[in-house]
């Protein structure tokens, strides 16, 4: 009998042996290609829930050629971490990281939604100030370079 996939909403940090059926909604790479680079993505499940996933340099060399934005996958086994950084790309309490035992298989899962936009009334953000200061939203360029002196 096949194992029922986990839902992103149910990720609570209690286990890392997750089986997710997802679509990569956004995919970008940070760093210098072929030197020090990591991949980051937002994945979405059949309920439209999203979570941030990080693929560090040591794992990226195995998976970079296989990861494609808008493609669908079955993914197993991640490190589950708190999503409490200064900037967050998803509202989920946790984020996932690839490990040495992470498995990724491309699969035809056409029923999985594409990225959903979650619009709010402009007055809610500007007038009421009802926003989250640590949540990064919108499209941003992966070609952004920040220099430090």
Strand content: 25-35%
CATH superfamily: Nucleic acid-binding proteins
Which overall shape is indicated by the principal axes computed on the Cα atoms?
globular
* Major beta-sheet overview: 7 strands, mixed
| DSSP, total strands | 7
Average residue-wise pLDDT: 80
Per-chain topology:
Elements: E1 19-32, E2 36-44, E3 50-55, H1 57-63, E4 72-76, E5 79-82, E6 94-97, E7 103-106, H2 122-126
Question: Nutshell version of this structure?
Answer:
The chain is mainly beta.
Kindly describe this structure.
This protein has a single domain (8-126), classed as OB fold (Dihydrolipoamide Acetyltransferase, E2P). The chain is built from two helices and seven strands. It has helices at 57-63, 122-126; strands at residues 19-32, 36-44, 50-55, 72-76, 79-82, 94-97, 103-106. Strand 1 (19-32) and strand 2 form a beta hairpin. The chain is globular and about 45 Å long. It holds the Pfam family DUF223. This is Replication protein A 70 kDa DNA-binding subunit B/D first OB fold domain-containing protein. Residues 9-106 form the Replication protein A 70 kDa DNA-binding subunit B/D first OB fold domain.
Can you give keywords for this protein?
7-stranded mixed β-sheet, mainly beta, 149 residues, globular, 2 helices, OB fold (Dihydrolipoamide Acetyltransferase, E2P)
